[in-house]
Write a structure and sequence with these properties.
- This protein has eleven helices and twelve strands.
- It is α/β, with parallel strands linked by helices.
- It has a six-stranded mixed sheet, sandwiched between helices. A six-stranded parallel sheet has the order 9-8-7-10-11-12, sandwiched between helices.
- Helix 1 runs antiparallel to helix 11, helix 5 crosses helix 10 and helix 10 crosses helix 11.
- The chain is globular.
């Protein structure tokens, strides 16, 4: 990598930031494209975020990604927001324009693109089961609702969280059918009826975590998508696959939300194959 006075800097900001894979995939893509840029990971305290972003614009940064807990802070602090950021109430991508900073959210795009790539379709006309209705599950449910899902099952043990999400979805997509599944029995029964099952809880991040759903929750021909990407196959995905479902993990979502950010910043398509290989090497040691 030859750095020069023309090299465009990009970065991801978080607190902490050591775990991020964004530099791995973006730098691999820029190298492949011979794009004169460098992508850094910077630890910025949440209290300083809205001071740091304008400074980065002045310093000539070409684009910034944000990770937890900065997405919501940027959403509240930025004057200009793309429709994608407004939908989720969070901004994970900041574009520096002549008219100021614009907040975007590429997570929903990444989710849909990963589904399309893995299964050949996204969510339109589907009965969708979302397991875990916190940050990632909320985003998946909202995206599915506005992109034409027929119905949604919101499965979580936190009744208040589920109700909040249902209210939010109803305000955006009043016609969608919503079912709440708080108890295991109800989850099992409703999951079997769905076309797409999205695992959005943190269970599965540890290698020996069990599947939250038993084999009888799945059926032949279903699609099962686990947002966790640390392992090629979590216990949830193994259980679904053995019951006859098609499966995919969250690596594609991570990949495509990153690719979309690069397009927003540069108007150029990144090298998705180079990004994918870099991620797989970093995560699975392939």
């Amino acid at each position: 990598m030859n750095l020069s006075g023309h090299t465009k800097p990009f970065a991801v900001l978080g607190h902490p930031i050591g775990h991020t894979l964004s530099p791995v995939m973006h730098n691999a893509s820029m190298q492949e494209l011979e794009f004169d840029g460098i992508y850094l990971a910077l630890d910025v305290h949440p209290d300083r975020l809205m001071d740091v972003l304008p400074s980065m614009a002045l310093m000539g940064f070409a684009g910034v990604n944000l990770t937890v807990p900065h997405k919501e802070i940027a959403f509240r602090g930025l004057e200009k927001l793309d429709a994608s950021a407004k939908l989720f109430g969070a901004a994970n991508t900041v574009e520096f324009t002549a008219d100021g900073m614009v907040g975007h959210n590429t997570d929903g795009y990444g989710f849909l693109k990963a589904l399309e790539e893995a299964f050949g379709k996204t969510v339109e006309g589907d009965a969708v089961f979302v397991l875990g209705c916190g940050g990632a599950g909320r985003a998946a449910a909202l995206q599915a609702a506005v992109k034409g899902a027929k119905s949604l099952v919101l499965a979580d043990i936190d009744a208040e969280r589920v109700q909040r999400l249902e209210d939010e979805i109803k305000s955006l997509a009043p016609d969608i059918e919503i079912f709440q599944a708080l108890e295991k029995e109800k989850q099992l029964e409703l999951c079997r009826e769905c076309d797409l099952v999205v695992q959005a809880s943190p269970v599965g991040m540890k290698k020996d975590d069990p599947s939250l759903l038993p084999p009888e929750a799945f059926k032949e021909g279903q699609r099962a998508f686990d947002l966790i990407y640390m392992y090629p196959e979590t216990a949830f995905l193994t259980t679904a696959r053995e019951a006859g479902a098609q499966i995919a993990n969250g690596l594609g979502m991570l990949l495509h939300q990153g690719a979309r950010a690069f397009e927003i910043w540069t108007g150029t398509e990144p090298s998705v194959p180079a990004m994918r290989k870099a991620l797989e090497d970093a995560v699975y040691g392939a």
